[in-house]
């Protein structure tokens, strides 16, 4: 069902310049749209409540035309709301059940891979402000703090609005980088605040990294994870094993698939294969949570084994590539390649530093790190 079926404008632009409908009419359109979604059968009361909230946003942001356009984005708001409703319901139930002792720090919620941040925006309106300190929207696409936002970055204008009942903030982090995960845990749990992790539509390895973060710190008392795409075939091709710090492991081949989206169409593994592997993926992700939080040592050991396996795979691939290259060479050419090998290996380890004088007595330091293996070569 499209919004046009209800005689209402498709996007916010038309909303403003064409048929201007009242907030009540617009809210009714949103409600009708959501009624056609399967999730309405189980979460009708919550979705109706969220429609009222969205109508209040419409009134609040109406004068900021471009911003309201980004929030509504045609049918996007309705679609996103339907997708996050089960996570909102469980998060709300967990907060309601939480008994915070007098004077203890309030809960911090991390919404991992938040994208625009619809989940956080609805939670800000629905959760009790006396129990939740703030909601942090974590994504790789926010501009880092103290760096000017560029076109490629997410625009945080809606997040910065001062009228959110529970404060929303952004945090730029790459979840695949262990130090970024450690920084997140340190930044938001250091004051002893209990914390929740939410992750909706986390593609491939991001789901694993979300669980790593959750397991890394006992301050996290709640995790809601909705995985998205399955890991890519590459992981199976190189024989990867996914291993949790609690000792659970499984072969990447059991879940990896070939395929990609192109202009809204999936090209790759069949629906049957996708469904079968998705169930295996979810069951194994759940197993990483079994047995309580693992120790930091166990997590470090698992990470070390993963890095060692990856290094071995890369070294094997380099060897195969080298052998393929040698196969076409004459005996003399091979001997010459072997003779130059030590020099080549040394060059591959070299860190080159170039100091270029600029005008106004400034110095520009350009550091070109070829392959940093810990071997520093004297500057010539
Ligand atoms: C499929 S979207 C999900 C967005 C939102 N949670 C939702 O359900 O609509 C995936 C999000 O993950 C973010 N992302 C991708 N790789 C990431 C990484 N390595 N670290 C943190 N965020 C990442 C993207 O910028 C994007 O916003």
Q: What does this protein structure show overall?
A:
This is Methyltransferase domain-containing protein. The protein has 380 residues and is of the alpha/beta class. The chain folds into three domains: 3-80; 83-294, 3-Layer(aba) Sandwich (Rossmann fold), CATH 3.40.50; 338-380, no CATH class. It contains 13 helices and eleven strands. It has a five-stranded parallel sheet with strand order 3-2-1-4-5, with helices on both faces. The protein has a two-stranded antiparallel sheet with strand order 6-7. A hairpin with a 5-residue loop joins strand 10 (351-357) and strand 11. Helix 2 packs antiparallel against helix 3 (40-61), helix 3 crosses helix 5 and helix 5 packs across helix 6 (118-126). The protein is globular, with a radius of gyration of 26 Å.
Strand and helix layout:
Elements: H1 12-17, H2 23-35, H3 40-61, H4 65-72, H5 76-97, E1 107-112, H6 118-126, E2 132-139, H7 157-160, E3 167-172, H8 178-189, E4 195-202, H9 205-215, E5 220-227, H10 233-237, E6 241-243, E7 249-251, E8 259-262, E9 265-268, H11 271-287, H12 296-327, H13 331-349, E10 351-357, E11 363-369
Parallel strand pairs: 1-2, 1-4, 2-3, 4-5
Antiparallel strand pairs: 6-7, 8-9, 10-11
Helix pairs in contact: 2-3, 3-5, 5-6
The structure holds S-adenosylmethionine.
């Amino acid at each position: 069902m499209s919004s046009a079926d209800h005689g209402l404008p498709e996007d916010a632009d038309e909303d403003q310049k064409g048929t201007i409908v009242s907030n009540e009419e617009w809210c009714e359109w949103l409600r009708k749209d959501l009624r056609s979604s399967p999730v309405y059968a189980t979460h009708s009361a919550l979705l109706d409540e969220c429609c009222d909230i969205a109508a209040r946003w419409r009134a609040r942001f109406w004068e900021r035309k471009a911003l309201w356009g980004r929030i509504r984005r045609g049918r996007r708001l309705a679609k996103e709301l339907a997708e996050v409703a089960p996570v909102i319901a469980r998060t709300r139930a967990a907060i309601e059940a939480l008994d915070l002792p007098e004077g203890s720090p309030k809960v911090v919620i991390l919404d991992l891979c938040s994208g625009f941040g619809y989940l956080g925006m609805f939670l800000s309106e629905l959760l009790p402000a006396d129990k939740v300190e703030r909601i942090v929207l974590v994504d790789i696409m926010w501009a880092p703090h103290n760096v000017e936002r560029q076109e490629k970055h997410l625009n945080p204008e809606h997040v910065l609005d001062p009228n959110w009942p529970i404060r929303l903030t952004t945090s730029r982090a790459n979840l695949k980088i262990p130090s970024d995960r450690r920084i997140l845990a340190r930044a938001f749990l250091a004051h002893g605040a209990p914390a929740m992790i939410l992750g909706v539509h986390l593609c491939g390895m991001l789901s694993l990294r979300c669980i790593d973060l959750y397991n890394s710190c006992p301050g996290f008392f709640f995790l809601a994870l909705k995985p998205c795409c399955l890991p890519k075939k590459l992981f199976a091709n190189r024989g990867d094993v996914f291993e949790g710090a609690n000792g659970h492991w499984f072969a990447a081949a059991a879940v990896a698939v070939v395929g990609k989206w192109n202009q809204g169409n999936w090209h790759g593994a069949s629906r049957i294969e996708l469904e079968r592997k998705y169930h295996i993926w979810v069951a194994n992700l759940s197993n990483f949570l079994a047995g309580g939080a693992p120790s930091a040592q166990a997590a470090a050991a698992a990470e070390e084994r993963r890095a060692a396996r990856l290094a071995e795979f890369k070294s094997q691939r380099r060897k195969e590539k080298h052998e393929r290259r040698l196969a076409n060479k004459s005996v003399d050419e091979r001997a010459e390649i072997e003779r130059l090998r030590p020099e080549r290996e040394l060059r591959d380890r070299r860190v080159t530093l170039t100091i270029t004088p600029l005008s106004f007595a400034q110095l520009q330091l350009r550091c070109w790190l070829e392959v940093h293996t810990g071997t520093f070569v004297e500057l010539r």
